[in-house]
């Protein structure tokens, strides 16, 4: 559980103490029973009303009826009902209306409708209350069982979310692990990266081969688009790494190491995406100076359109940001694949954000630009190429040659 | 000692209950009787033989009713029975009833007070 991950383990008990939950449930149940009583009363009224309506309609049938006339509360007089078509209806506030049987029946019907509406609304309220009660009850039961809510933030090792000085009600252990979390997390991530990279490289090896062939063949847009830098990647990696290290702050260290692994392969792994996000977080702190360099970074994961979902080139961001987006379904690109497609660009942006740490050389590459624009590219690239130390991709240099 | 206290509490509770629930009923009944008595006396005094009134049909819907002969009265004697009385008989009955009710009220009061004292002394 949360090994290394800064997570909070919150026992439901803490969030919703069993007692409180059951108390709340009881309260809600009381409210529900109140409503039920109300409902019963209203229904009674409605029934009385209906009976009265029928009575009012029957009385005028006779001229008079023999009845027992109540006298006070405890005595009766034998008598007769007279004027059987005249009814005195109480309108409220001491006002009465003398009406005929038909009119009285109408009044009563309207009252009945009113009652029905009230009953409906009351029923709706009761339903809500019942749902609430159910929730409380289930929560109480869960809390009693000791259900635990585990929430782990996806945090980069560097970011010490110290905010969780031991999740409030978490189980102890988390806090203990805090100091080791970073290392553990880092190791964990590295391992994952390695795995993913392996997978990716295997899958991409073929593609890469093709691409590299194509690259050497021509300097076309395709090349630009392609991850022509596959070859260059490895060598550049070192440079990148250096840059990375320099550029990156202490926090980036971990990223650097990650870069190593990354740079080697064009990571198309899903992991990369996560990584990217991680990087993003990391780099978020850094000044996004590396706009341009981003693509220099070895582990630029150019997200190919296809692999849009996957790897994100950290460095690509810059390129993308430049708006150089070639809607090419780029094969696994090298970091220099500035020609990432729009989608990749998005991802790249993310990745580049992560890579931003490398202040290194600011290489402006309009990789995405079509050949027509090569002159522009060249001009742009030249400055970059002027920095041999910077991991200027051979690709770039090639571009510059154009 | 605890037991005594418990009993005391119980007694108090019962007393309160009776006071609250039963007493008002008694008082009500007494009031009714007295009202009735007054009304009958009124009728007799004024020599009313017949009158008209409004009868509540339910939900405050009234209809005129006519009492042609007031000499006969049906008085509720409890347990759902109504006895046909003449005025004088009715009045007599009512006074008797009233006395009984008053005695009952007093008796219950003293009974509970006695219980309370009992608990206290224990």
Automatic annotation (TrEMBL), chain A:
Residues 105-139 form a coiled coil. GO terms for biological process: negative regulation of transcription by RNA polymerase II; protein folding; response to cold. Pfam families: Prefoldin. It is found in: Nucleus. Residues 196-209, 220-261 have a biased composition (Acidic residues). GO terms for cellular component: nucleus. Residues 391-402 have a biased composition (Basic residues). Residues 156-275, 311-402 are annotated as: Disordered. Residues 315-324, 336-352, 374-390 have a biased composition (Polar residues). GO terms for molecular function: chromatin binding; phosphatase inhibitor activity; transcription corepressor activity. Keywords: Coiled coil, Nucleus. Residues 170-195 have a biased composition (Basic and acidic residues). It comes from the Eukaryota. InterPro entries: Prefoldin (IPR009053), Prefoldin_subunit_alpha (IPR004127), RNA_pol_II_subunit5-mediator (IPR052255). Belongs to the RNA polymerase II subunit 5-mediating protein family. This is RNA polymerase II subunit 5-mediating protein homolog.
From TrEMBL, chain B:
GO terms for biological process: positive regulation of transcription by RNA polymerase II; protein folding; response to cold. GO terms for cellular component: mediator complex. It comes from the Eukaryota. CDD domains: Prefoldin_UXT (cd23158). InterPro entries: Prefoldin (IPR009053), Prefoldin_subunit_alpha (IPR004127). One of its GO terms (molecular function) is transcription coregulator activity. Pfam families: Prefoldin. This is Protein UXT homolog. It comes from Ananas comosus var. bracteatus (red pineapple).
């Amino acid at each position: 559980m949360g090994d290394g991950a800064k997570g909070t383990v919150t026992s439901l008990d803490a969030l919703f103490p069993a007692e409180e939950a059951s108390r709340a449930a009881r309260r809600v149940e009381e409210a529900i029973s109140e409503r039920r009583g109300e409902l019963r009363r209203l229904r009674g009224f409605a029934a009385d009303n209906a009976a009265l309506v029928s009575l009012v309609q029957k009385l005028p049938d006779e001229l008079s009826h023999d009845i027992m006339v109540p006298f006070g509360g405890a005595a009766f007089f034998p008598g007769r009902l007279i004027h059987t078509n005249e009814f005195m209806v109480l309108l409220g506030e001491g006002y009465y209306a003398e009406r005929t049987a038909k009119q009285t029946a109408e009044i009563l019907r309207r009252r009945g409708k009113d009652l029905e509406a009230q009953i409906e609304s009351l029923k709706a309220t009761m339903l809500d209350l019942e749902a609430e009660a159910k929730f409380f009850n289930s929560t109480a039961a869960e809390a009693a069982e000791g259900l635990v809510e585990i929430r782990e933030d996806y945090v980069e090792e560097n970011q010490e979310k110290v905010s969780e000085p031991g999740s409030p009600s978490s189980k102890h252990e988390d806090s203990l692990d805090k100091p080791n979390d970073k290392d553990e997390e880092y190791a964990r991530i590295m391992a994952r990266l390695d795995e993913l990279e392996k997978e990716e490289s295997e899958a991409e090896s073929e593609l890469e081969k093709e691409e590299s062939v194509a690259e050497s063949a021509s300097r076309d847009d395709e090349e630009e688009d392609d991850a022509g830098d596959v070859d260059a990647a490895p060598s550049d990696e070192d440079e990148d790494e250096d840059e990375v290290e320099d550029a990156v702050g202490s926090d980036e260290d971990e990223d650097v190491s990650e870069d190593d692994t990354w740079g080697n392969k064009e990571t198309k792994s899903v992991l990369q995406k996560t990584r990217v996000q991680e990087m993003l977080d990391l780099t978020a702190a850094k000044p996004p100076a590396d706009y341009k360099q981003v693509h220099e970074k070895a582990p630029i994961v150019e997200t190919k359109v296809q692999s849009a979902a996957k790897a994100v080139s950290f460095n690509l961001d810059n390129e993308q940001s430049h708006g150089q987006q070639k809607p090419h379904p780029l094969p696994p690109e090298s970091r220099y694949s500035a020609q990432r497609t729009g989608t990749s660009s998005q991802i790249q942006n993310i990745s580049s954000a992560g890579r931003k740490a490398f202040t290194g050389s600011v290489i402006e590459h309009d990789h995405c630009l079509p050949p027509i624009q090569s002159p522009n590219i060249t001009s742009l690239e030249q400055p970059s190429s002027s920095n041999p130390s910077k991991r200027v991709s051979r690709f770039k240099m090639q571009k510059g040659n154009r | 000692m605890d037991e005594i206290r418990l009993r005391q509490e119980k007694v108090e509770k019962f007393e309160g209950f009776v006071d609250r629930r039963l007493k008002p009923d008694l008082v009500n009944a007494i009031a009714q009787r007295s009202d009735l008595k007054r009304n009958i006396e009124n009728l007799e005094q004024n020599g009313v033989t017949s009158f008209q009134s409004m009868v509540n049909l339910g939900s405050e819907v009234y209809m005129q009713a006519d009492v042609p002969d007031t000499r006969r009265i049906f008085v509720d004697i409890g347990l759902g029975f109504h006895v046909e009385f003449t005025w004088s008989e009715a009045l007599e009955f009512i006074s008797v009833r009233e006395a009984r009710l008053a005695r009952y009220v007093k008796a219950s009061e003293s009974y509970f007070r006695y219980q309370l004292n009992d608990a206290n002394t224990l």
